[in-house]
Design brief:
Blueprint (H helix, E strand, L loop, with lengths): L7 H4 L4 H6 L2 H7 L26 E7 L1 H17 L3 E7 L4 H11 L8 E5 L3 H7 L24 H4 L9 E7 L2 E4 H7 L9 H15 L4 E3 L10 H8 L17 H15 L3 E3 L4 H10 L4 E2 L5 H8 L7 E4 L13 E9 L6 H13 L1 H11 L26 H10 L11 H18 L3 H16 L6
Parallel strand pairs: 1-2, 1-3, 6-7
Antiparallel strand pairs: 3-10, 4-10, 5-8, 5-9
Helix pairs in contact: 3-5, 4-15, 8-9, 10-11, 17-18
C-alpha cells in the first residue's frame, strides 16, 4: 500500500482477512470448483516438487498490482546474471491472491506458481494447515541472510530457527502522520508528545480549537481490519493476540490498557467513525476530519497522492509510547516471498527470490518505483532514504522509519488462528465504541471464546 506499493484496486481490500477467517478446511471446500491452471507440481501435502538447476528453468511468480510491476521490471537485470532462467510475473490482485494460493495448497500444490508473495498474517496459516506446501529455503542457503533484515522479521519466517518458510520483503513500521497546521492552531507541539495519555489531552485541545477529531476508527467494524489501531497499541507494548507459544493473550494487561485508551478517546469525543472502508478514509483526509492518522510507513505516499494540495501541512513521527519510557517503534506488517513446495524449479525460484530480496540495488529500485519499504537493512544506505520531503515540510521521513526498523522489535506470532482472533477483537472493540462496554470484560469474553474455538491454551 503505497508509499505506493498498493494500487487503487488493492486499497479496497475489505475481504483480505475474511478469506482466512473461513478456516483452511472450509475455504478449501468453498473453492473446490475453481479452475486450476499452470500446474507446476503435485503432492498430497502440497510438496512433491524438486530442486532443479539454480541457473536454469522456467519460474512463475504470483504477486499483485504495484509489487508485481516492480518484480517484472527487475527481470531484465536478473537475466544478465541468470540468462537461462525464464521468469514470468502474474498480477493476481489483492485479495484474490489469497484465495488462489489457498486453493492451490488445498489441491496438493496444483496450479501454484513457483514463487508466492505472501502477507505476514497469512504465512503461519499456510505453513500450519498445509505442511510441505511451501519449500524450506534453508537448504538453499537462506540462513546466510538471517541478520540482513529488520529486527524481529526473521522470527516470522523461521519460527524454530531451522526451517525457513520465506524471505522478508517489505517492512512497515508504525507511524504517526499528523496535520501540523491543526496542531499549531491548537497550540500543541506534536513532537513533544511522549505518551498516548498526553496525546489524548492534546486531542481535547485540538478538538476545542479546530473541531477536528484526534483520529478515526471503523467503529462498527465494517471492514475486517478495523482493529489496526488497537493492534498497533499492542505491538508498541511488545505483545499481540497470541504469545510466542501460541497461547491466547487477548485479555492481557497490555490488551486491556490498549482498549481502555481507545475507550477514553471515544468517550471524550475524539474518535471519528471511519466505517465504510477505503473511500471513507480518503474522504476524511480531504476534509481534514482527523488531526492524526496512525498508519504505517506505506501511508505517506497515499497522503501525497490523495491530497497534493495539502503539501507542507503534514508531518510524520513515530507514535507516542503507551507507557512513559516505553517503545515507540513496532513493525506492524510485512510481506514475504516464498517458494512453492510443488515447484519443480525450486533452486531457480530461490535464485530469483534471493536476487530480489537480498541485493540492495534490487530493493532500492523497487522503493524508487513504488515506495515499498524494504526489510533489507543494507538497502537503507542509499541516498533515496535520506532525502528531505517537500510535502512533509522538509522532513527526511525515510530516516524516521529507518530508526524504527533499527529498534528492538520482538517477533509476532500470528498463528493459523489470527483471523478468528481478529474477528473477536473487532467485535469487542465495537462493543466498547458503540455501547460503552468495559474493555476488560469484553476482552476476557473474547479470549475465552477464542480458546473455545481453537482449543488453544490461555496465556493467563
Amino acid at each position: 500500500m503505497a508509499d505506493n506499493d498498493r494500487d487503487d484496486a488493492d486499497r479496497s481490500r475489505p475481504d483480505r482477512r475474511a478469506v482466512l477467517r473461513m478456516g483452511g478446511g472450509a475455504l478449501a471446500a468453498g473453492l473446490g470448483g475453481l479452475a486450476l491452471t499452470a500446474c507446476t507440481g503435485t503432492g498430497a501435502d502440497g510438496g512433491g516438487g524438486g530442486k532443479g538447476d539454480p541457473g536454469k528453468g522456467s519460474v512463475s511468480v504470483w504477486s499483485w498490482q504495484g509489487p508485481a510491476a516492480e518484480l517484472k521490471a527487475l527481470i531484465p537485470e536478473f537475466n544478465k546474471t541468470y540468462p537461462d532462467i525464464q521468469v514470468t510475473v502474474e498480477d493476481i490482485g489483492n485479495p484474490a491472491i489469497w484465495e488462489k494460493i489457498t486453493a492451490g495448497l488445498a489441491a496438493g500444490g496444483q496450479g501454484l506458481a513457483d514463487v508466492l508473495h505472501i502477507g505476514v498474517d497469512y504465512l503461519p496459516g499456510y505453513v500450519e494447515r498445509f505442511p510441505g506446501g511451501l519449500a524450506d529455503l534453508a537448504p538453499f542457503g537462506a540462513t546466510a541472510h538471517k541478520d540482513a533484515f529488520a529486527n524481529g522479521l526473521w522470527g516470522t519466517v523461521s519460527p524454530d530457527g531451522k526451517r525457513v518458510d520465506a524471505l522478508p520483503w517489505e517492512a512497515n513500521s508504525a507511524g504517526f502522520y499528523y496535520r501540523a497546521d491543526l496542531f499549531e492552531k491548537a497550540g500543541v507541539d506534536a513532537e513533544a508528545l511522549q505518551t498516548w495519555d498526553e496525546t489524548v489531552e492534546a486531542g481535547k485541545q485540538i478538538k476545542a480549537k479546530t473541531g477536528a477529531h484526534l483520529l478515526g476508527i471503523d467503529k462498527p467494524a465494517s471492514q475486517a481490519d478495523a482493529a489496526n489501531f488497537f493492534q498497533m497499541l499492542l505491538q508498541l507494548q511488545g505483545t499481540f493476540y497470541f504469545d510466542l507459544e501460541g497461547r491466547v493473550a487477548l485479555d492481557s494487561p497490555e490488551a486491556v490498557r490498549a482498549m481502555t485508551l481507545i475507550k477514553t478517546m471515544n468517550d471524550a469525543g475524539l474518535v471519528s467513525d471511519l466505517s465504510g472502508g477505503w473511500n471513507t478514509l480518503m474522504s476524511s483526509l480531504k476534509k481534514g476530519t482527523n488531526a492524526v492518522v496512525p498508519y504505517p510507513t506505506w501511508f505517506g505516499g497515499v497522503i501525497e497522492e490523495q491530497v497534493p494540495d495539502q503539501a507542507g501541512r503534514w508531518r510524520v513521527r513515530l507514535p507516542p509510547a503507551v507507557r512513559r519510557g516505553g517503545p515507540t517503534a513496532a513493525t506492524v506488517n510485512s510481506t514475504h516471498l516464498a517458494v512453492a513446495g510443488s515447484s519443480r524449479h525450486q533452486a531457480a525460484a530461490w535464485s530469483f527470490v534471493e536476487y530480489v530480496l537480498t541485493r540492495p540495488a534490487s530493493q532500492v529500485r523497487i522503493y524508487r518505483g513504488k515506495g515499498i519499504a524494504p526489510a533489507l537493512m543494507k538497502a537503507y544506505d542509499d541516498s533515496v532514504f535520506h532525502e528531505p520531503s517537500a510535502f512533509f515540510g522538509g522532513q527526511k521521513k525515510g530516516e524516521i522509519f529507518l530508526a524504527a526498523l533499527k529498534a528492538p522489535s520482538p517477533p509476532v506470532n500470528y498463528t493459523a488462528d489470527y483471523a478468528r482472533a481478529l474477528k473477536l477483537v473487532t467485535d469487542a472493540q465495537s462493543k466498547v465504541l458503540l455501547k460503552g462496554a468495559d474493555p476488560a470484560a469484553v476482552l476476557r469474553d473474547a479470549a475465552a471464546e477464542l480458546v473455545r474455538q481453537t482449543g488453544r491454551k490461555a496465556a493467563r
